[in-house]
Amino acid sequence: MATTEETPTRKIQVKRFKPEEYPEKHYLNQEKGLWAWLTTVDHKKIGLMYLMSVAFFFLVGGVLALLLRTELLTPARNFMTADVYNQVFTLHGAIMIFFFLIPSVPAALGNFVLPLQLGAKDVAFPRLNLASFYIYVIGALFTITAIFTGGIDTGWTFYTPYSSTTGGSVAMMTLGVFILGFSSILTGLNFIVTIHKLRSPGITWNKLPLNLWGLYATSLIQILATPVLAITLLLLTMERVLSIGIFDPALGGDPVLYQHFFWFYSHPAVYIMIVPGFGIVSEIISTFSKKVIFGYWAIALSSLAIAFIGFLVWGHHMFTAGQSSLANMVFSFLTFLVGIPTGIKIFNWLATMYKGSIDLKTPMVYILVFLFLFTIGGFTGIMLGALSVDVHLHDTYYVVAHFHYVMMGGMVMAFLGGLHYWWPKMFGKMYSEFWGKIAAGIIFVGFNMTFLPQFIMGSQGMPRRYYNYIDQFQAFHQFSTIGAYIMGVGFVIIAAYLLHSLLRGEKASSNPWGSRALEWQTSSPPDLHNFKHTPVIINGPYDYHKPMSEFQLGIATPHNGHGHHEEEGMDVAETEKEKA
Hints:
CATH superfamily of the domain at 43-274: Cytochrome c oxidase-like, subunit I domain
Order of helices and strands: EHHHHHHHHHHHHHHHEEEH
Region (Disordered): 557-580
Low-confidence stretches: 1-11, 557-580
Radius of gyration: 25 Å
Membrane topology: Multi-pass membrane protein
Pfam families: COX1 (PF00115)
Keywords: Cell membrane, Copper, Electron transport, Heme, Iron, Membrane, Metal-binding, Respiratory chain, Translocase, Transmembrane, Transmembrane helix, Transport
Number of strands: 4
Mean pLDDT: 88
CATH class of the domain at 43-274: Mainly Alpha
Strand order of the largest sheet: 2-3-1-4
CATH topology of the domain at 43-274: Cytochrome C Oxidase, Chain A
Largest sheet: 4 strands, antiparallel
Main location: membrane
């Protein structure tokens, strides 16, 4: 008669974890040399390579913007022809959107922070993560080639029939963006699997940091929407090369069909840019207000709601394109609807700050700038969602100002807040708080000087993308250009003090902000594998109602298989019971 022998269970223990203040060995000095960086599968180094890449493209896009504003100082020609002007504003838009705004938070900051906030050693597919970066670089090389082999003057939207018939390197440019889309898709896939499968013990869905909810919603949009753009640009390239007549009316095509395809991706792409920024805002506000985040589930689910409704509003870009009145009404209603979950976030953030112990460090200053500028962008978006108003404001500088208040006033300010927030964790060095706040103030003043006049110009009928203009708009354009110069000075200051911090900055402690989030419970800079032991999460990431003496992070240590513990500690269940 067979007998079964009972095998001992492998229990997990919890021992109090205390990170090193500044470790001798960390991810930046354990693998040295250029080849080690180019072949690394460490998510932190890949995130830094993305960060350097998007910073380069931000510099290029910013210089192009300053060239545009300089040309617009006077109504007459200053230093560039109309054709060159068209190429410059096309490249400014394409570079800023496809090579900076879309990858900056998810691919750069997200890659660095996401496994740390999960207590994981890396993302689910490290080699795929590195491949995503190289796909991004290949797409950028195609774009650079297009610039030097004829340029492109279609605008960043590549609208047909002009883009399918004009000269220049349209096919090369669209091919670069097509390739870039695969990087976005693979990054989104990697993040979703990582969040589902690699959470440390104790991280339930209601203990997931709101930054990760933002990245999760963004990843869903990347996977579902980006293939539509890829197919659209592929069809455009085929039309240019093979004359197959999908969009060209001379060949039996429909140019409005291109707009439907393009905006079905490009409006969700707006949320690829801004939703991860929302996650950063939640982290920073809670940390620097020292309060439990107000309405955790409302903020988390509103990110998913934005991702869902964002797929249904593409038609509000086409109110003047000949849609039926019924379609215009439906898209107008949905445009108002998508503002509700965004408003929920703003009110919850304000409620979190209410009666909080607010510490105005540089990251928090950028978030306050974000709240002011993004709210203006949101209100002006409601104006553009109204049919009667949009017909007048469509394709004017009002739209330019609205878009920049949302994208730059929103996403870029959130990105700068996140960059300053996690900079000590990335490099283990502190930057100058004085210069950080000075730069934030300069950017705030310069930004409003640049774009507030454009609301006035647009409401008075100044069309966007125009090389010349009538004299009545000259004072507005000059004021706007001076603001752009001031804003540029602010970004130069940021680059200067961050680079100075790498060379001569003070060493950062493991948790300089006093945060309760998991990424701050390891050393700065982190270990090569993030945590030396598997962390066991007992508290939530926003448990600021508990004194720091009661806030505990455990490390998982197993039995040695002989009924004895390898290290002294407590069983997870016992610890959680005691904490309860």
